[in-house]
Design goal:
The complex is a heterodimer of chains A (330) and B (221). Chain A is 33% helix and 31% strand. In chain A, strands 6-7-8-3-9-10 form a six-stranded mixed β-sheet, sandwiched between helices. With 221 residues, chain B is mainly alpha-helical. Chain B is elongated. The chains are: A alpha/beta (330), B mainly alpha (221). At the A-B interface, helix 2 and helix 3 of A face helix 6 and helix 7 of B.
Chain lengths: 330, 221
């Protein structure tokens, strides 16, 4: 479990104070994958540097399984850092070392006996599927393979938390999905807590159990994927499950409704039952239906007849657990 | 007419040995001290592992820059009393090595600093996040990752030393520089002049070829 409370970071730039982190509080329970999304400049990089204490936060605290990282001696900090495995955007492998030497690095630091190092490294390379590349140098590996080595290296110290900073942003879509699958698999096997910092919504949809939206150094929205995706007033819903950009414009004068729903309702014939029950026509303007994990999610834009009983329809939809936003009539 | 009398050949051999002596002695000391100085320059600098502003200013702006701005020919002459104090004589390859070393350390240190700066900050971050001490980060990450650049710096420095050693020969160091001056310049003995040049060119080429080969061998980037 990782707990961050009221983390603030203020940079001094000339005589001006730049607030990069403005009271970030968050908690990721053991065994969960949490995504932190935000545009560039939202404070993602600063957050990563403060979480690993590469930068000293101005105030607030970070703790891993109840063990404080902030305000500790440099020796304690070094030990605490070993509780966090970090995966970088560009893997940051050491070019002068082979795959196995890279993975062995954290053990080498504390003088682990050679035979123990060898068995741990072999086990980790097996885990990430790179056993046959043990003697290869990073320059001989593909981007995805390098990231796998990076992940193996991050797991060398059996950390409680895996912190991934834009882990797939330099990878192609297919490799991205492979890496995310690997992260999920590792979480299941090792029951490790994972924090993924990213600007890609795809990563959140593919891998995360919960998500936070970081903006202007603050977390402005957070929750489980299911909750944020069906929260019609939230900002994450429409970015996680956007309607196709080239959705046709409404032509009639009937009211337009946006529907967000999940699970049970997604598999039910919402529209046809609506048409039957209220004896009206329903026109689908746009929609996206996705399967994320074992859940189905749908985002539909409907247009009703101008004479439809809008209030009754909205009430009916809401009562079945569908989040409805009325876009108004055109 | 035979220019290469046994006496001349013997002098040529001695001169070559003296040049090698100067280059090897000052080369080894320069690499050892210059590497440490280069690491200090990088580590204490802005954004380094342990920024210490005053120390960086003293090392960089005062020691390195001032030494480097004095032309070697002048520095060499100015250092004659100092060399005499250190090794007890101002003559011979050992004495010349003192001024050669002092003249090339700042040059080599700067090259090392540049090579270290080329190591991406992300690698240093990775080392720290994995729980490395600053010393471990320097020894196990910073220097090994910069090694191809450091080897190139050593090659460039040794080539420079060969050139400087010829100059040092003129003020008592001996070696091929002295040989070229005595036979080639004062006695107008062109063949001997050309021969010393050829030996120096061959030395430089050898150093460059060996240096490049080592750099290629250890460069896995």
């Amino acid at each position: 479990m990782i707990t961050v409370s009221d983390l603030r970071k203020v940079y001094q730039q000339g005589s001006k104070d730049i607030v990069a982190l403005d009271g970030v509080t968050l908690e990721v329970p053991t065994g969960k994958i949490h995504g932190i999304v935000g545009h560039s400049g939202a404070g993602k990089s600063t957050l990563v540097r403060c979480l690993t204490l590469l930068d000293q936060p101005t105030s607030g605290s970070v703790s891993v399984n109840g063990k404080e990282l902030t305000n500790v001696s440099s020796e304690e900090l070094r030990n605490a850092r070993r509780r966090i495995g970090m995966v970088f955007q560009h893997a940051n492998l050491f070019d002068s070392r082979t795959t196995e030497q890279n993975v062995a690095y954290p053990l080498e630091l504390v003088g682990t006996p050679k035979d123990q190092v060898a068995s741990k490294v072999a086990e980790l390379l097996e885990l990430v599927g790179l056993s046959q590349f043990a003697k290869a140098y990073p320059s001989q590996l593909s981007g995805g393979q390098r990231q796998r080595v990076g992940i193996a290296r991050a797991l060398t110290t059996d950390p409680d938390v895996l912190l991934c900073d834009e882990p797939t942003s330099a990878l192609d879509p297919k490799t991205t999905d492979e890496i995310l699958e690997l992260v999920k698999e590792l979480r299941d096997r090792l029951n490790i807590t994972v924090l993924i910092i990213t600007h890609e919504m795809h990563v959140v949809k593919q891998a995360c159990d919960s998500v936070s939206l970081l903006e202007g150094g603050k977390i402005v929205e957070h929750g489980d994927i299911e909750a944020v995706i069906t929260n019609a007033t939230g900002r994450l819903a429409s970015t996680l499950l956007p309607l196709p950009g080239d959705a046709p414009r409404a032509e009639g004068s009937g009211p337009i409704l946006d529907l967000l729903y999940t699970g049970q309702q997604a598999t039910e014939p919402v529209i046809s039952s609506l048409a039957r029950q209220f004896n009206t026509d329903v026109n689908v303007l746009a929609g996206s239906v996705e399967q994320l994990g074992d859940q189905q999610y749908a985002h539909l834009r409907l247009q009703l007849n101008a004479d439809a009983d809008l209030e009754a329809i909205v009430n009916h939809l809401t009562s079945t657990g569908i989040a409805v936003t009325v876009k108004g009539a055109k | 007419m035979n220019f290469f009398t046994p006496t001349v050949l013997k002098a040529m051999g001695t001169a070559t040995v003296e040049t090698l002596e100067m280059v090897v002695i000052s080369g080894i000391i320069t690499v050892v001290i210059g590497l440490a100085l280069g690491i200090l320059l990088h580590v204490t600098g802005k954004g380094g592992l342990a920024p210490i502003r005053w120390l960086n200013v003293v090392l960089s702006a005062i020691i390195v820059n001032i030494t480097r701005s004095i032309p070697f020919a002048i520095l060499m002459v100015a250092l004659i009393p100092f060399s005499a104090m250190v090794v007890g004589t101002s003559l011979g390859p050992i004495a010349a090595s003192v001024s050669l070393t002092i003249g090339t350390i700042p040059f080599f240190a700067r090259l090392v600093e540049t090579a270290l700066r080329d190591v991406s900050a992300g690698k240093v971050d990775a080392a720290l996040v994995m729980g490395s001490t600053k010393m471990q980060t320097i020894r196990k990450v910073l220097v090994p990752e910069a090694m191809p650049g450091i080897i190139s710096a050593v090659t460039t420095t040794v080539v420079t030393l060969i050139g400087y050693s010829a100059m040092a020969g003129l003020v008592g160091g001996g070696g091929l520089g002295r040989m070229a001056y005595t036979y080639g310049y004062t006695r107008y003995n062109m063949p001997i002049m050309i021969t010393t040049i050829i030996i120096i060119v061959v030395l430089v080429q050898l150093v460059q070829i060996i240096g490049d080969a080592i750099a290629r061998k250890i460069d896995h980037r």
